């Protein structure tokens, strides 16, 4: 007996086919900038979006970004199960809220807070928000002290190196604080202790020390900066606190450099931020901000609401936020533990140092850093080569690799570099494949009459008119 097929949608009187192909159902034109008059079948809508996203770069081959691009399937599953949880709704999702506070305590212990059990901190959407919260607390503490002394509060400034992430420019602009950017000089590509002190005065709300510059992967000398500020205060100068921007390094140094003193072991460090979605190994959308004690975070900045149920304290620039990333962070802390994080970060560093040494041995390149601090290194093209770093970046992009080329900030804009970020999932084998492709393009580049690309054509110049890498300028 023949099988009866349902009528087709286009002609109810004509028998249909048992399979209605997705692409045969897709309309000739899908609106891109206006809502369509009629909706699409969910399979068709999915396929249209999916196919367009195939034109994006491969995240695993993106050596510009600091952001996590690989995670365990169990973490992904937990995130999928938690996409509907609102991080701010602590009364409705008390377990999620509790996981956030457990993460805060774990980080407080990792960073040697005086009393991790009562540490104060919160999750954020990323380090940009966390930095702004840290800066805002510095400003408010400075204002309180100035008012108590009967002094004016209308000219606050913040001292930092020109290599800071663009979120600090945003902080200064949004919250009306003068940014005192210390320029690079010679082979000093980040903030030094003497330079930090020289830029401080009675209106300085704080000094920002970066643990892991995104320009070259180097640590700023936090302990020396704090010691120099101690001497300044002891000599009758201003008593200036320090915020450590540990967007990347605060999740590397505790495991790979445990004896390095950069955290709350230094009395002058008032607050620290990190990106859970960088070397915290969580997918994008998570940062952390912690203060050494309650005195470092003015109570007036903590607001309270009761319309979600219960008495809810909130200190953040955002309100509703997904809880999935916080849950994934807690999973990673349980899954890896201290030794697991050490092995992951040390492997990244081993890949970075081996890869940087191999690139240096190729001949036409000179290392600026070698990946022995953050697993990140920068290198430049030797003088006299007929190609630029921008040519190298473009040639590698043809092979699928995203390696950023950019110029350094004031006063070393003459330095143009390439930077490679080694993250969890970028293995020794992938590094070897990158070197193979670099070797493959070098003969063509060396045969050029001269450089073909310059900074004006670089595709990695994001944010505030300065070079970038995730969050704006540093660490895509």
TrEMBL record:
Record PTM N6-(pyridoxal phosphate)lysine, positions in chain: 278
Gene Ontology molecular function: any one: glutamate decarboxylase activity
EC number: 4.1.1.15
Pfam families on file: Pyridoxal_deC
Annotated catalysed reactions: L-glutamate + H(+) = 4-aminobutanoate + CO2
GO biological process: L-glutamate catabolic process
Family: Belongs to the group II decarboxylase family.
Protein name: Glutamate decarboxylase
Naturally occurring in which organism (per UniProt): Pseudonocardia endophytica
